[in-house]
Amino acid sequence: MDNAPTRPRGAPRSKRRSPRGPRPVARDPRTQHHHDNLIAATAFLRDQDKPELAGSIDYVLGPDGPAFLKDLANPSGMKVPLTISMRDSRVRIMKDQTSPVERDRILNAGFEAFLAGEFDLRKEKEDRTPLTASGDVRRVLTTNPDADLQARVSQRCRDLKEAGKATVPRLSLGTVAAAVLYQHFGLGPYASDDGA
User: Fold this and answer.
1) 42-54 confidence digits (pLDDT tens)
2) 3-class secondary structure per residue, the chain
3) Mean pLDDT value across residues 90-98
């Protein structure tokens, strides 16, 4: 027949045609060097009758390795500085009454309450009097609450704003943190006379 196949069934159509599918991507030489060393280390450890240590390296090199290394680099409970802008008079009250560790504990508890929907987030009354006229200035209070809680509160604020459910203007991690501290110390919208 004129249209009879001229090549065996299953044979490649051309030796020059590349196989289908994703092409392997070459590693960076430095990355490849460390990868090769880890492979050699597993073989050495097994030769030394230390299969558990070799297994740990295999785990890092396996599909769960990237997530493990990411968690290792940024573990839950890691301290990430959080700066909060507020009136100098309020900062002085907080520093006079509590230590940095105590303020971090207050923030952690407040963040957990906010995430559980149990925190009374109040809008601060607008004060048109310039801070300089009142003899006050703005300062930054540096705190170190739990990093995981900070990330979750930030995400919750974004979700509330996107859903149109933000109860205060410019809802953010910073405004929640300030409100938590104001509530604890009875300042701002949480003061009996709202004068602090």
Assistant:
1) 999 899 888 888 8
2) CCCCCCCCCCCCCCCCCCCCCCCCCCCCHHHHHHHHHHHHHHHHHHHCCCHHHHHHHHHHHCCCHHHHHHHHHCCCCCECCEEEEEEHHHHHHHHHHCCHHHHHHHHHHHHHHHHCCCCCCCCCCCCCCCCCCCCCCEEEEEECCEHHHHHHHHHHHHHHHHCCCCCCCCCCHHHHHHHHHHHHHCCHHHCCCCCC
3) 95
